[in-house]
Amino acid sequence: MQNKDFNKKIIVLSGGTGFVGSALTVALLKRGYHVRILTRDKKKYDSIKTLPVEYFYWDSASTPAPESALEGAYGVVHLAGESVAGSRWTQKRKKAILESRTIGTQNLVKGIAHLSAIPQVLIGTSAIGFYGDRANEELSEASKQGDGFLPEVCKQWEDETLKAQSLLRVALIRVGIVLGTEAGALNQMLPIFRLGLGGPLGSGAQWMSWIHLQDLVEMYIFALENNLSGAFNGVAPKPVTNKNFTQALSQALGRPAVIPAPQFGIKVAFGQMATIILSSQKVSATKIVEAGFKFSFPSIEVALGDLLSPLGFKGAYTLKAYQWLPSEKNKVFEFFSQASNLEVLTPEWLNFKIEKVSDAKIKKDTLIDYNLRVRGIPIRWKTLIAEWQVGHSFVDRMLKGPYRDWHHTHTFTELDGGTLIYDQVYYRLPIGVIGNLVAMLWVVADVFKIFNYRKAKISELFKARD
C-alpha cells in the first residue's frame, strides 16, 4: 500500500546527464525541485559538479535502483537507454539497445518496489519508433504497434514500465525527433547543411514528427505535475514532410539545401539503421494538448527559428552553459561587475589584455577595448554592455572583432542557497561558407574550451573566497 508521506520536492532521474536529461535537470531545479541523478559515473560527475544535484551510483544492467536514491522521492523520470543512432545495427548492438531498455527498466521498478514509501509517479520514456514506417497514416496513441526491430524494442520497453502501475501512477512519453543544438538529430545534420550541401533524404515525402527540446522538457514536467497516466506522444502538433523540414532548415540557416541524399545511398551507408532516417511517421499530439499542455514551439518554422536564427542572426551558433556556486548572488554579480575580472577568467593562451574601459564599474553602455590572440593571430575587440540589470543579468555585444555577430547574455538566479549562472552566447563568423567551415574546424571547439576553462576558474575562485 502506498505511503502518502513523501517529499514532493525530490525527483529521481535516470539518464539525467544526457541531452534531454541535462535540460530537464535544470528546468526542475528552477522550479524548486531537488534532483537526484542515477549514473554509472558518480565519481566523474561528483568531481565536475556544476549544479546542486545529488549523484547516485547505479549499474542499470545488473542491480535494482538504489533505495538511498529513491527514498522520499515524489517522482521518478526514466530516460536512460542505449542510443539507437551513431553506429550500424550489428546483432550485438541491437541486443544492447533492447536490453538497456528492458533490463534497465526492470531494475528500476525493482528498486521502487523495495521501498517502504513508494513515490507518487513514474514517467517512462519510449519513442515514436513504436509505430514503425506508416506512410501517410495518422497515428495516435491508440494506433497499433508497427513491424520491425524498433517497434518491438519500444513495445517491450513500455511493457516493462507499465508493470509498475500496481505500485504508482505511470505515464509514458513516446518521444519524436528532438530538436536542439547541443546534441541529437538536428546537431548531426547541421554541419553539412551549414556548408550548403544538404537536401531532402530519399524521396523527401516521409513524415517527420519532431519536438523542440524545451517543449519536451516541459512535457515531462507537465506529466509529473498533472494526473496523467498511460502513453502520450512527445511530438509537436504540426508534423512535416522531410522535404518541408529541409526547406525550413534552409531558411533558418540562410543556406541552400537542394542536394538530395538518395535512398539507396542512405541504406548502403547506414544498413538497418536507415529505417530511422527513411521511416514515415505522421504522429498526433492531440492527446497531450487535450490534457492541457501548451506548446511554445508548435511549428517547425518557429522551432528552427529559435534554435538557428536567434535575434534574427540566421545560422547562428549557440553555446549554453550553466554553473551553480554556493555563494550569494550579490557577491557573484559584484565579481562580474569588475572589468578586470575578465582577464582572470580568460585562458592564458588567448593573451587577453584590457586596453581601455569607459567606466570604472561596468554598467549599461560601458565600452571595453581589449587585445587577444586566437591561434596566434592578434585581434582587437570592442565590447558594448548593451543591457545591464543590477544583480540579475547583463548582455555584452561585440562592436568590433573577428565575428560577424557576438551576443552574450549572462543571467544570475538564486538557487538552493547559492547562485545559478547561465551563459547564453549567439555568434556568427563572416564570409559565408568559408566562415562556417572555419567555425566547424576550430571556432566551435575553441569557444567550448574557453567556457570550460571559465567554469573551472570561477569554481576555483569562489571556493577560495567562501
Fold blueprint:
Elements: E1 10-14, H1 19-30, E2 34-39, H2 42-47, E3 54-57, H3 67-70, E4 75-78, H4 91-113, E5 121-127, E6 138-139, H5 149-162, E7 169-175, E8 177-179, H6 184-194, E9 207-208, E10 210-212, H7 213-225, E11 230-234, E12 240-241, H8 242-253, H9 263-270, H10 274-278, E13 282-283, H11 286-290, H12 300-308, E14 317-325, H13 329-336, H14 341-344, E15 353-357, E16 367-374, E17 377-389, E18 393-400, E19 405-415, E20 418-428, H15 432-465
Parallel strand pairs: 1-2, 1-4, 2-3, 4-5, 5-7, 6-13, 7-11, 8-10
Antiparallel strand pairs: 9-12, 14-20, 15-16, 16-17, 17-18, 18-19, 19-20
Helix pairs in contact: 1-7, 4-5, 8-12
Quick structural overview:
This protein has about 475 residues and is of the alpha/beta class. The protein has helices at about 20-30, 40-45, 65-70, 90-115, 150-160, 185-195, 215-225, 240-255, 265-270, 275-280, 285-290, 300-310, 330-335, 340-345, 430-465, and strands at about 10-15, 35-40, 55, 75-80, 120-125, 140, 170-175, 175-180, 205-210, 210, 230-235, 240, 280-285, 315-325, 355, 365-375, 375-390, 395-400, 405-415, 420-430.
Task: Give an account of the 3D structure.
This protein is α/β, with parallel strands linked by helices. It folds into two domains: 10-308, Rossmann fold (3-Layer(aba) Sandwich), CATH 3.40.50; 317-465, 2-Layer Sandwich (Alpha-D-Glucose-1,6-Bisphosphate, Chain A, domain 4). The chain is 36% helix and 25% strand. It contains 15 helices and 20 strands. It has helices spanning 19-30, 42-47, 67-70, 91-113, 149-162, 184-194, 213-225, 242-253, 263-270, 274-278, 286-290, 300-308, 329-336, 341-344, 432-465; strands spanning 10-14, 34-39, 54-57, 75-78, 121-127, 138-139, 169-175, 177-179, 207-208, 210-212, 230-234, 240-241, 282-283, 317-325, 353-357, 367-374, 377-389, 393-400, 405-415, 418-428. The chain has a seven-stranded parallel β-sheet, sandwiched between helices. Strands 14-20-19-18-17-16-15 form a seven-stranded antiparallel β-sheet. The chain has a two-stranded parallel sheet with strand order 6-13. Helix 1 crosses helix 7 (213-225) and helix 8 runs parallel beside helix 12. The protein is globular and about 65 Å long. The relative contact order is 0.10. Mean pLDDT is 90; it is low at 1-7.
